[in-house]
């Protein structure tokens, strides 16, 4: 069974930094794109950043100057370095992976989410 497990969320002051991690585990044949989404209270889930297995990245316009996505293919892990955090970055951050499980079909998988709160 494939699982995505996020870590690294928490409470941080405005202007601070956090680094999120997401590790995919289980019987995985191949992972294509991985990414981060977020959902604030009362809002729709939105893309934060994505990265392909070749290392190509894309970001939401409001975050591309402050956030950096990276990936360790050997560890099936994706990271999100978040700098200069603002109160409006407060949300639950979800990891996503487009992958093929062993003896299965390509599909999207989601982590359980990690809370990021930016507040003084």
How would you characterize the overall build of this protein?
With 120 residues, the chain is mainly beta. It is 0% helix and 57% strand. It has no helices and eleven strands. Strands 2, 4, 5, 6, 9, 10 and 11 form a seven-stranded mixed sheet that branches. The protein has a four-stranded antiparallel sheet with strand order 1-3-8-7, with no helix packed on it. The radius of gyration is 14 Å and the shape is elongated. The model has no long low-confidence stretch (mean pLDDT 96).
What attributes characterize this protein structure?
mainly beta; seven-stranded mixed sheet; single chain; elongated; 120 residues; four-stranded antiparallel sheet
Write a brief caption for the model.
With 120 residues, the chain is mostly beta strands. The protein is built from no helices and 11 strands.
Spatial gap, N to C terminus: 40 Å
| Tally of DSSP helical segments | 0
* SSE string: EEEEEEEEEEE
Report the uncertain regions.
Answer: none
Percentage of residues in helical conformation:
under 10%
Task: Indicate the topology.
Blueprint: E1 3-7, E2 10-12, E3 18-25, E4 28-39, E5 46-51, E6 57-59, E7 67-72, E8 77-82, E9 91-101, E10 107-110, E11 114-118
């Amino acid at each position: 069974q494939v699982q995505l497990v996020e870590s690294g969320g928490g409470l941080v002051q405005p202007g601070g930094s956090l680094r999120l991690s997401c590790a995919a585990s289980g019987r995985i044949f191949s992972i294509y794109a991985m990414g981060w989404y977020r959902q604030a209270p009362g809002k729709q889930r939105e893309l934060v950043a994505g990265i392909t297995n070749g290392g190509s990245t894309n970001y939401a316009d409001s975050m591309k100057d402050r956030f950096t996505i990276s990936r360790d293919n050997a560890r099936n892990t994706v990271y999100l370095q978040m700098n200069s955090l603002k109160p409006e970055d407060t949300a639950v951050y979800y990891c996503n992976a487009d992958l093929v499980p062993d003896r299965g079909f390509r599909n999207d998988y989601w982590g359980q989410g990690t809370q990021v709160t930016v507040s003084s």
